Amino acid sequence: MLISVKRKVPANWASALVNRDASGLTPDEAEKAFAWEREQGFGEAVSAEDHTYIESFQGFTTETCSYAFLVKVPIDEVVVPAYLEAAMFTDGGPDHPDIDAGEFAPESILKAKTDCVQFISDNIDLVLAAVSRVGYDYASLAHDLWLTRNGHGTGFWDRRELEEGDLGNQLSMAARALPPLTLELDDKGNLHLL
Fold first, then answer.
1. How sure is the predictor about 6, in pLDDT bands with cuts at 50, 70 and 90?
2. Alpha-carbon torsion (160, 127, 106, 82), positive or negative
C-alpha cells in the first residue's frame, strides 16, 4: 500500500522533483534537489501544491511548497498479519484455547487494516524513523501498536531500538490515544475485534 508523505522544500524544485525536468535549475541546484530527494528515501515526488510559503530550508530563507511522496508500506503482507498475531498472543493462549481455534472475521481483518493504516498515516514521520532503525521493522511496529494501545506490559516505550530521540515514547503516546480493543469469539468460531 502506498501512503502519502508531505515535505516542504523549495518551490523552484517542483519541475525537477515532480516532472524530472531540471532545465529550470542550475546544475548545482538540480544536484542539490536530487541529492535531498535521495537522502529522504521516499522515491520521486508525485505532486507539488500551488500554495507557497516563505520559510527557512537548510539554513536559507526561501519560497517553499508542500510536495507529496508515496511511500510503500507492506500493510497486507506484513503489518496486518503481525498485528493480528499480537492480538492472538495477548488474548489467546493456554487460558483461552477457544480464541486460538478461532478465525478472524472479515470485518475484523478490515478493522485491523483500517486502524493500522490510520495510525501509520497519522504518524508517518515517527513510523519511518522507527522502521529505519536496525533491528526494528514493520512487523515489530504492528506488534507494538497492538500491545501499546491495549495497555500490555510492553510496547513502543520498551524497545531499545526506539530509545534514541525518545521515539518509543512518542509512538506510545500516539498509540495510547486509540481506544483499546479485545478479541471476542462468536458462536460460529469467528474472532471479532471489539
1. very high
2. negative
Q: What is the number of residues in the chain?
A: 194
pLDDT on residue 100:
86
Displacement of CA 46 from its chain's centroid (Å): 18
C-alpha–C-alpha distance, residues 155 and 159, integer Å: 7
The residue out of 56, 72, 88 marking a domain boundary is 72
**DSSP bridge pairs for 6:** 68
Give me the phi and psi of 105, to 5 degrees please.
-70, 145
96-100, 126-130, 132-136, 137-141: segment of lowest average pLDDT:
96-100
- For residue 79 the three cell numbers come to 503489518
Number of domains in the chain: 2
Structural domain that includes position 41? 2-72
Q: What is the pLDDT of residues 149-186, one digit of tens each?
A: 999 999 999 999 999 999 999 999 999 999 999 999 99
| 92 and 144 inside one domain | yes
Separation CA 80–CA 117 (nearest Å): 9
Please say whether the beta carbons of 157 and 148 come within 8 A. yes
Judgement on whether residues 143 and 103 belong to the same structural domain of the protein: yes
Cα-based torsion angle of the residue sequence 100, 175, 139, 169 in order, rounded to the nearest 10 degrees: -130
Q: Distance (Å, rounded) from C-alpha 166 to C-alpha 72?
A: 25
